[in-house]
Write a structure and sequence with these properties.
This protein is of the alpha/beta class. The protein folds into two domains: 139 residues, Glycogen Phosphorylase B (Rossmann fold, 3-Layer(aba) Sandwich); 179 residues, 3-Layer(aba) Sandwich (Rossmann fold), CATH 3.40.50. It is built from 13 helices and twelve strands. The strands form two sheets. The chain has a six-stranded parallel beta sheet, with helices on both faces. Strands 9-8-7-10-11-12 form a six-stranded parallel beta sheet, with helices on both faces. Helix 6 packs across helix 9. The longest helix has 15 residues. The two termini are 31 Å apart. The relative contact order is 0.13.
């Protein structure tokens, strides 16, 4: 059998301008591309939200940001951006995000090799296409990305997310804990009650019950982490709690990752922070609703998934006719049972080292 590797690949562009979890679950496939094309310059095209995830990634040489709502909102700005991509003279463009726009950008780049999935518009412009279909509940996103890049790569690859924190980021997180009065020997539990959509969010009053029990039974210190649009969730959770807690809104995704990294335990919904915790191997209990839990479960041996099995799954969550019972009526006892198991086995020391592949 002839090699799948392409000849004369000097510059590769990977398009992944979507979510935090989407990009993190692409890092094993990016590593496989690096393994197969060790001398190529690899650039990832991301968006402002997820681009910082790649800082310190040894498989990525350059990060380019497409800001659809800001810098590149106007037509002329987009035209200049596309023209700058074409000037880079990429040899291979990988449309890793399944959408029409990445296929379009791959075509505009002028790259001789253009790799993507055969499910969206402009698919006819691709030179290499993945034509398979996936049933819900069968294949993890990491493996879907492997399926795509193996059209031009050889080898199995490693099913491990890549996220490296820098020394100064870890030092800042450690200093922040000290400023809050959290000692190295304290059992710190991070809670993130948010999620990208309403159907993914377990009720804040339920989180409050779990947090209070952690304080009462394990002497935990509780750190509530939130995104810029989640202030109400934070207030609702703190108001429902009887015990004291610390609430904080990190200014960046890197600051959020560093704070998750120093937690002994992390409890969250299906979300970007969940995938960050998985990449850092932080003991995690992740609450799932209607999302395909097989495809998007946190990829870490330190993570536990909790969900309520429903006869209507797999479903179309945004058209739910029963009020997202899978999420909203998931019992507190079911979550607490998994949290307690993780609390008993979670390391009692602070993590101070960078994540290294």
């Amino acid at each position: 059998m002839s090699s799948r590797r392409l000849p004369n690949i000097r510059k590769i562009l990977i398009i992944r301008n979507d979510g935090i979890g989407d990009l993190l679950n692409s890092t094993p496939a990016i590593a496989l591309l690096r393994q197969n094309y060790p001398d190529a310059e690899i650039t990832v095209l991301a968006q402002p939200l997820n681009a910082p995830i790649l800082i310190g990634n040894p498989d990525v040489d350059r990060i380019r940001v497409f800001d659809r709502e800001g810098e590149h909102r106007r037509l002329w700005a987009r035209f200049r951006f596309y023209r700058s991509l074409r000037r880079e003279k990429y040899d291979l463009v990988v449309a890793m995000r399944t959408a029409s726009w990445p296929n379009f950008v791959a075509f505009l780049s002028g790259a001789p090799y253009r790799l993507g999935r055969y499910h969206k518009r402009f698919k006819c412009t691709l030179t290499h296409t993945w034509r398979g279909m996936y049933e819900k509940g069968h294949v993890h996103e990491v493996d879907r990305n492997f399926d795509l890049v193996r059209l031009v790569c050889e080898g199995k690859g490693h099913r491990r997310l890549v996220l490296n924190l820098l020394d100064d980021e870890l030092a800042k997180a450690k200093g922040q804990l000290a400023a809050w009065g959290i000692a190295p020997q304290d059992f710190l539990v991070g809670i993130h009650p948010g999620g990208s959509s309403f159907d993914k969010r377990w009720p804040e009053r339920n989180y409050a019950r779990v947090a209070d029990t952690l304080v009462n039974e394990h002497g935990a210190k509780v750190l509530i982490l939130r995104g810029p649009e989640e202030a109400e969730l934070e207030r609702n959770l703190q108001k429902a709690m009887r015990a004291d807690s610390i609430a904080f809104a990190p200014k960046s995704i890197r600051e959020l990752a560093a704070l998750i990294n120093v937690c002994n335990l992390f409890v969250c919904n299906d979300s970007g922070p969940m995938h960050i915790a998985a990449a850092l191997d932080v003991p995690t209990v992740a609450i799932f609703g209607p999302t395909d839990h097989v495809a998007w479960k946190p990829l870490s041996d330190e993570a536990t998934l909790v969900r309520r099995d429903m006869p209507c799954w797999p479903c179309s969550a945004h058209k739910c006719k029963i009020g997202w019972e899978c999420t909203k009526k998931l019992p507190v006892d079911a979550v607490w049972g998994q949290v307690e198991k993780r609390a008993k086995t979670a390391p009692q020391h602070r993590k101070e080292k960078r994540r290294v592949r």
